[in-house]
Specification:
Blueprint lengths: L2 H10 L3 H17 L4 H11 L2 H12 L4 H12 L1 H13 L4 H9 L3 H13 L5 H29 L12 H10 L6 H16 L8 H29 L3
Helix pairs in contact: 1-9, 2-4, 2-9, 2-10, 3-9, 4-5, 6-8, 8-9, 11-12
């Protein structure tokens, strides 16, 4: 009964190497930004999303208005809505309480690993998929809380020369690369990278949500184009 849970836990274990420095860095940066330990932990427990937490902290440190920081964090976290939509075919039949718990603990790592496993194992039942998913988040989320707390306690004791911020790009590269399986995926990734660089000069990191929007539009249009071309070929076979 517990084997899907153990499999999910095992499959997400490699991300421990990323989550530990990533969450520790958040605790350190948050303390450096002026938050006390209670505020650091409240942010980690309530938001549970490292990228948006770093975005909000960066904007607040730059003197951006609070509503701008919240808006940017929300824009970064909009990917969770897409994650949720992708999980509906797999976990949509679970009880409401379980779905709410799964939504709260959703992180990039658990989503990416779970969705790929579901696609590779279509014979799994809904209950097995749910246990697998909770195995994934058990390997990630407790460490996020614990290491955020440890980073907040250490504060400025970690020297800048360690450059723990390497964990942020490495984590997202590891998550993104295996999911680039089609032309629309590649188009969206290319547009997002180019737009991010082109819009890097905008104040308050506004280039990030704009680049994400451009990437989604480009990916969707690319998928529509391929679907129309396939329909034309089906209607006019050679």
């Amino acid at each position: 009964m517990s084997s899907p849970f153990r499999a999910g836990f095992r499959d997400c274990l490699p991300f421990v190497l990323i989550v530990v420095p990533f969450s520790t860095l958040f605790g350190v940066v948050a303390r450096d930004a002026g938050l006390d330990i209670l505020q650091v932990m409240a942010m980690s427990v309530i938001v549970v999303a490292g990228a948006s937490q770093f975005t909000a902290l960066s904007l607040l440190q730059d003197g951006a208005p609070v509503f701008v920081a919240l808006l940017a964090a929300l824009a970064v976290n909009l990917r969770m809505a897409m994650y949720s939509a992708a999980l509906v075919p797999h976990l949509g039949g679970a009880p409401l309480g379980m779905r709410a718990l799964a939504a709260y603990f959703m992180v990039d790592q658990s989503f990416a690993v779970a969705v790929r496993h579901y696609e590779d194992s279509p014979q799994m039942t809904g209950a097995e998929k749910l246990r697998y998913y909770f195995g994934c988040i058990t390997a990630i989320c407790p460490l996020w809380y614990a290491c955020s707390f440890a980073g907040a306690l250490m504060g400025r004791a970690i020297p800048a020369s360690l450059s723990l911020d390497f964990a942020v790009p490495v984590c997202f590269i590891a998550l993104l690369a295996p999911l680039l399986r089609s032309a629309p995926h590649l188009v969206a990734a290319l547009v997002s990278g180019l737009a991010t660089v082109a819009l890097a000069g905008l104040p308050w990191n506004l280039g990030l949500p704009l680049a994400a929007l451009a990437a989604m539009i480009a990916g969707a249009q690319s998928e529509l184009h391929l679907a129309r071309r396939a329909a034309r070929r089906a209607a006019c076979p050679a």
